[in-house]
Amino acid sequence: MTIEEYKAKVDAKYARKPDRHPVWLIFDPQGRFEGVCGLSVNIPNVESAHKRFTPLECVRLRELAEGYVVRLAEPGEWERIIEQEKVK
Length: 88
What we know:
By secondary structure, the protein is α+β, with helices and mostly antiparallel strands. It has one domain. The protein is 49% helix and 19% strand. It contains 4 helices and 3 strands; from the N terminus they run αββααβα. The chain has helices at residues 3-14, 46-53, 57-66, 75-87, and strands at 23-27, 33-39, 69-73. A hairpin with a 5-residue loop joins strand 1 (23-27) and strand 2 (33-39). The chain starts with a helix and ends with a helix.
């Protein structure tokens, strides 16, 4: 799914709902946005979020060693990140 497709999906699902939730984001070692996963209420911590992004433990360990970062982002923040990626 491209960033544009994801943004359209997010807009359609949450545009009219005031109770939007934070989401987990993953960034590559250069700080580029790689993906977004689930509502934070369903994923309690960074380890669980990384497992959702990367199911294989050996790949997760490699990503951590390479400098991938998984972090929680509030709705306004992750929407800005997606918009910034669209213009690159």
